[in-house]
Design brief:
Chain lengths: 447, 349
């Protein structure tokens, strides 16, 4: 009921929800038919482990859909081993390090997960995953195996890292490295899969994966900032000491100490973390400009626009220190609808970056730095899509590399833009009809 | 391989930017002889900020509109390159701008050329493309406005055009740098003006929505760009690409106008508890009323339509050309530059 009230109090979001639920057509329809029992079961497991992610994966182009689904499940299996507190380190570490070898087997499964381990299903039924894995193109198999190897080893290293387990993340460099293992590697794997399928520009695999790294780190850092209170409750912390130690002697104090002074310091700490995360934005936008397949674009863009919206929400927000903050469901629908074209994504980023700028406190030690990074991002957005009337008549501005990306993808964006407009029109007509009908009914009742 | 500069003549070298030019040529060009030509004599006292030894700089007094004065300075300095940064401050009569910016520049160029000077770097202004309209990420392809907003920028544009058209490869090489919003030690307009606003209690007013991005440039960075320009002009490998060209010079950090202002006030120990926002149309009307009332009362108006337009306009630039062709990178960031400026102001109070 709370959600309905929330929606009614935000009419444009209500419209977005209606449009999203009733009128939005995925790039690729998923008919629910699978060519094998094992494949069907894998999609079932996907739905069990991540409902939101499952929805996005199912809309991918068929060939890549299966590969990314398997990639997701394999990493979820790794994560399930790593997360399981009923398993000893001595047991977990070799299992994680050698996990990629299991992918070569025809059959392997593991039923030693704790009974309450949420996603144990992927380990118990790993045989189904293996069956589908081996039906993928060999190059996709190699990509998944390589990332599994590196991620498994990364996880094992962290389990054995006493300093990390006792005190959390120390330096900003450590913070970036942790996010690399948790999210950057996933971004790298996905990038390789998309490039191999020719749905993304090959240059993304030739830049040392700098841009895909930023894609992963931007998401992960946003979640880490947002999840402060929840992580503390779980006995963990991922905020880097190099940053938080400027503001407090003890990270939990932001939650425990209710004084205005403590809150102020907590906000300054959040804001510095947001500043750190914003440095990934230009790489993220550049990455997205190079993804040409619409379903892959959606797959990559949706999490990024959610992340920038979340960053704007957590910025200078004292609630972060006390509870889990989330963007509204209506906002989510709006973002998904608007982020189907690259100009739409850029507009979303620009809008939220401005929100961050306007929510700044002059007394914040990073006040000017936040202003500068927001200005830099706005300048980059202006470079890609100039404001109306910004470029004087007759001026031929010197193009930047990003401008050729934008030009190359313009036909795709224009096509999708037409689809979106038709969809919006249908939605508006339906709403207008419904309102008219309701009005007529009320009229007849009254007379 | 960059040819080592032996001698430079800094025209306008005792001014705000001029002192920074002395400093940067001193720091970046070992063994260079620095000559300063200005209508003013050698400054009595130089801020501790500057590290160049005053006695190693030769000061030549003269008038830029006098051909004989110019030729005497060129002869004495035997300069490889002239850096021309002489310019009157904003707010002076039009005839002063015409005399110094246009006539003076023409005299300087003609005399330098005829006396065999190899190169000239001209300090133009980012304002040459501004006419009160928004400037979003402009680069050097932006045209001059048909009608300039003020006499200062009009004369700077005329002078710049003359300088760049005087470029003759193999004989006389020219370049124009267009710095935006220069501030730093020696600044008597930008940062001091903001400080005065805070002291008068006006800092709580925000004119416009503070969405407009603005470029400020630290004076030391502007001077550094001039050193780079001089070096590139005299280097046979790079001179072709840069000569006869204008270049925007900024701190490469466009920032919201009031965010910059508040950063200055904050560094000065002043943070307002709240802001009163006047949107642009309201502020312009208030500006006209203010001008009208001030005329009746015979005092200087604080708010004018001109100032409203200036503080509400987007004015930021794409300096890719300076970064790629000159190798320019701002070495002093905005925050540090503001601190240096306030330290300098406190030193001289």
């Amino acid at each position: 009921m709370g959600k309905l009230v929330q929606l009614i109090s935000h009419p444009s979001e209500l419209r977005a929800v209606l449009q999203y639920k009733l009128f939005r057509k995925p790039v690729h329809e998923n008919d629910g038919k699978y060519k094998s029992e094992e494949l069907a079961y894998c999609y079932y497991m996907l739905g069990c482990t991540s409902r939101s992610f499952a929805a996005v994966i199912k809309e991918l182009e068929p060939e890549l859909r299966d590969a990314i689904m398997i990639f997701y499940l394999v990493l979820r299996a790794l994560d399930t081993v790593e997360d399981d507190m009923t398993l000893s380190s001595d047991f977990k570490v070799p299992l994680l390090r050698e996990f990629h070898h299991n992918l070569k087997l025809k059959e392997w499964s593991f039923d030693g997960s704790g009974p309450n381990e949420k996603d144990r299903i992927v380990l118990v039924h790993f045989n189904s995953i293996l069956s589908v894995y081996h039906s993928l193109k060999p190059i996709y198999q190699d990509i998944i195996k390589d990332i599994t190897d590196r991620m498994g080893n990364g996880m094992a290293d962290y389990i054995l890292d006493e300093e990390f387990n006792m005190n959390g993340v120390a330096t900003i460099k450590d913070y970036d490295l942790y996010c690399h293992y948790v999210a950057g590697l996933v971004g790298e794997g996905l990038t390789k899969l998309m490039v191999e399928a020719e749905f993304a520009d090959a240059s993304l695999t030739k830049d040392g994966f700098v841009k895909s790294e930023s894609m992963g780190l931007f998401l992960q850092k946003t979640n880490i900032i947002r999840d402060y209170e929840e992580d503390l409750r779980d006995g963990r912390s991922f905020w880097p000491k190099e940053i938080w130690s400027k503001y407090t002697d003890s990270l939990p104090s932001f939650r425990e100490d209710k004084s205005p002074e403590s809150e102020k310091k907590g906000l300054e700490c959040i804001n510095e973390l947001v500043l750190n995360a914003l440095h990934h934005v230009k790489d993220c936008l550049t990455f997205l400009s190079l993804v040409n397949d619409p379903s892959c674009f959606n797959f990559c863009a949706i999490p990024q626009v959610m992340a920038i919206a979340t960053l704007a929400l957590v910025y200078n927000n004292p609630k972060v220190l006390r509870q889990n903050v989330k963007i509204r469901k209506g906002t989510t629908c709006n973002l998904i609808l608007k982020s189907r074209t690259f100009p739409g994504v850029v507009e979303i980023f620009r809008s939220y970056v401005r929100d961050i700028h306007h929510n700044s406190s002059v007394s914040d030690p990073n006040y000017l730095k936040i202003g500068i990074i927001c200005g830099e991002i706005e300048q980059f957005c202006e470079l890609m899509y100039p404001s109306k009337g910004a470029i004087p008549a007759g001026v031929k501005k010197e193009p930047h590399p990003i401008n050729s990306n934008v030009a190359k993808r313009a036909p795709i964006d224009n096509t999708i833009s037409k689809t979106i407009k038709a969809e919006e029109l249908k939605c508006d007509l339906t709403i207008a009809s419904a309102v008219t009908l309701l009005g007529a009914i009320l009229f007849y009742i009254r007379s | 391989m960059t040819k080592e500069l032996r001698s430079v003549l800094l025209v306008g070298g005792t001014g705000f930017l001029g002192l920074h030019l002395i400093e940067q040529f001193y720091r970046n060009c070992p063994n260079i002889k620095i000559y300063v030509f200005d209508v003013r004599t050698r400054p009595e006292k130089i801020s501790k900020y500057f590290s160049f030894p005053v006695n190693d700089v030769k000061f030549i007094q003269g008038d830029i509109t006098s051909e004989s004065d110019i030729s005497r300075a060129i002869e004495e300095s035997e300069c490889d390159v002239i850096v021309h940064s002489a310019s009157p401050m904003h707010g002076l009569p039009q005839e002063i701008y015409e005399k110094v910016n246009v006539t003076g520049t023409k005299k300087l160029v003609e005399t330098a050329k005829s006396m065999g000077v190899k190169a000239l770097v001209y300090t133009s202004s980012a304002g040459v493309i501004f006419n009160g309209q928004d400037i979003h990420n402009a680069d050097e392809s932006w045209p001059f406005p048909e009608q300039h907003m003020d006499g200062y920028n009009e004369t700077k544009a005329i002078a710049e055009t003359y300088v760049l058209e005087s470029n003759e490869p193999g004989k006389f090489l020219t370049i124009a740098l267009r710095p935006a919003g220069i501030f730093g030690p020696g600044d008597r307009q930008l940062v001091p003006g903001l400080r005065a606003v805070a002291k008068s209690g006006q800092s709580k007013f925000q004119v416009g929505d503070n969405n407009n991005l603005f470029d400020w440039t630290y004076a030391g960075n502007v001077a550094d760009a001039h050193v780079l320009a001089a070096q590139k002009l005299l280097d046979p490998e790079s001179s072709h690409a840069v000569s006869g060209q204008p270049f925007f010079i900024t701190n490469d950090s466009p920032t919201y106008f009031w965010t910059l202002a508040r950063t200055v006030w904050k560094a000065d120990g002043h943070i307002d508890k709240y802001n009163i926002v006047l949107n642009r149309p309201v502020a312009i009307v208030a500006g006209y009323l203010s001008v009208f009332a001030s005329k009746l009362l015979k005092k200087e108006p604080g708010l004018t339509p001109f100032r409203v337009k200036v503080v509400c306009a987007y004015r930021y630039h794409d300096i890719t050309k300076a970064k790629t062709l000159l190798g320019y990178k701002p070495k002093v960031d905005l925050e540090t530059g503001i601190r240096y400026t306030l330290d300098w102001m406190n030193e001289s109070e």
